[in-house]
Amino acid sequence: MTGFATRKVVRKVKKLTSMLHRESGIECCEEPTKYLFIGNAGLTTGLQRECLVPHFTKYGIVDDVVMIPGKSYCFIVFRDANACAVAFNNLQAKQIVPDYPEVLYLAFARSVPTVENKDWHNGPPGSVVLENFVNETEEEILLHCIDWGTSDSGQHLKHRRVIHYGYEFQYHNNNINKDEPLKDKIPEECSVLFDRLKQMGYITSCPDQLTINQYLPGQGIPPHIDTHSACEGTILSLSLGSSVIMEFKHRDGQSMSLLLPQRSMLIMSGEARYAWSHGITPRKTDIMPCPGGGLSVQNRGVRTSFTFRWTRKDKCICSYHLECDSYNEKESSEQNDAGATELEKLHVHKVYEDIAEHFSETRHKPWPNVLDFVQSFPKGSVLVDVGCGNGKYFGQNKDIYEIGCDSSWNLSSLCKDRGFQVFTCNCLALPLRNDSADACISIAVIHHLANENRRLKAVQEIVRVLRQEGMALIYVWAKNQEYNNKKSSYLKQNWHNRKSKCNKTNAHEPPVVNAEEEKSQTEKYSKFSESSSFSLPLHTNRTQFLHKDVLVPWKLKPQSQKLQTAEVRTFYRYYHVFEKQELEDLCLREKNVELVKSFYDQGNWCVIIKKK
């Protein structure tokens, strides 16, 4: 390494270790320890443990990899300091992870933070793993009893292959369709499992529902809690073909990683079943504990899981009320819809009336993908823009008829002044005939609806007005404003993010907020909460979203206000920002819809759907 390169590395390491000490109090040192600090490699950079472990275990036994939520650095914990020193000497300032462009900057740390449970053999309370529950012969018999080809309930989902027996388990709401029993009952080959569990005292009766999922390497399932009213308090999951790590998460922030060995039976009851979400992270490798200690990386094989449930005949009466859909269901539903209506009225409809002129000034250039969609329709087609705003997508295709609607009177008036055919209405009740439009667009609208039922109703209204084979394009804000390691245009408008182009060391760090700014934000939040019946987090503009339901500030410039004052007024718009695949799942709940395309576009999740 040249003298210049060495000086550059020293500067980089000094900057990173100073940041580490400032944020966590952890000190780095010159003498080797068993703790190796890794800069430029963390959860916010998109790297997982599995990407790093193979490159460090070749120098010695690795006992742990500590990843910090929301940080662009991590720690490797070696069994001894000598192995740590060898890794340091060989990997300092190297680009070692394939397809990852950043070099890694290393330093010896005196300690590491404790951030999550590392006991791979203990899950949350109420979870039990029975290893070697079936033998190899039984495993083969069970795998061959699956009728993938002829069963009516077989499905190819985006991330796995699924088949149901007894009743269909519906993934869009994590519930069981009890009204339509399936003709295919649980295969007889499974009875040996139930007899064994009865003898061991874990169950007293046989389940009546089975879902079989087949996962290829790289596939997984999002974290979820099976709806309480769907099934009873015990769920069984048999892992065949391959081992896997299952991730458990609690609403209080706790998380656990539980090893499910091949041919093991997982039993979830009580708290594990009712209060913890469980899921499998989509990846091709898992970090596994070695029998003699330390960690190793194991490639995933084709895993087939048998999940058995007992359908519930009445409402759930558990004590985990925060997660329970049965608890005070009727009152909660009425309050939820009334609260959503009030929230939208105050923090969507009223806000857009107040900021309409300024909002319109910021909306000029059509987005290319929306423009392509609008221009794709032949002469004479009818296009409806649901939530047309200032009408920036009108007039882009001279050969079609265009109709727009918006809940804001002031925005609708701006469109009318420009000669467009627009009316004012709520997107939950479009005053249009069934089957009257060839195409619809809904750009940045549905994320303003304050509960899932209302978002689904908006999709249903769009589908209702479409003719058969009609198409709709829907855009909503994404919770993740980085995709394929690229920041969205929303994040790039933040000065700190633009600066990160020149300083890649902090490319994935959130902008620094000093104590005074943080205090100001807290006071603003408290004051806001007292002035209304809502308690939602205030989002910091041009930063990554930390919550799914947020209030986003809009600062109205003095020259845009009717009253010319020096003070900048701030309004708060409600947003539900969408997780990956959430918009797809929402649209596919409408049975006569076909998903044509799903994509990510500059911080938005987008779908094109067709009416069957």
Structure in words:
Its EC number is 2.1.1.229. GO terms for molecular function: S-adenosylmethionine-dependent methyltransferase activity; tRNA (5-carboxymethyluridine(34)-5-O)-methyltransferase activity; tRNA binding. Residues 206-312 form the Fe2OG dioxygenase domain. Its cofactor is Fe(2+). Keywords: Iron, Methyltransferase, Multifunctional enzyme, RNA-binding, Transferase, Zinc. There is one protein chain. With 612 residues, the protein is α+β, with helices and mostly antiparallel strands. The chain has four domains: 3-109, 2-Layer Sandwich (Alpha-Beta Plaits); 127-323, Jelly Rolls (Sandwich), CATH 2.60.120; 335-480 and 580-611, Rossmann fold (3-Layer(aba) Sandwich); 482-505 and 523-576, no CATH class. Helices cover 26% and strands 27% of the residues. The chain is built from 14 helices and 31 strands. The strands form eight sheets. Strands 6-16-13-20-11-8-7 form a seven-stranded antiparallel beta sheet. Strands 23-22-21-24-25-31-30 form a seven-stranded mixed beta sheet, with helices on both faces. Strand 26 and strand 27 (486-487) form a beta hairpin. The longest helix is centred in the middle third of the chain and has 33 residues, at 329-361. The chain is globular, with a radius of gyration of 27 Å. Mean pLDDT is 85; it is low at 497-532.
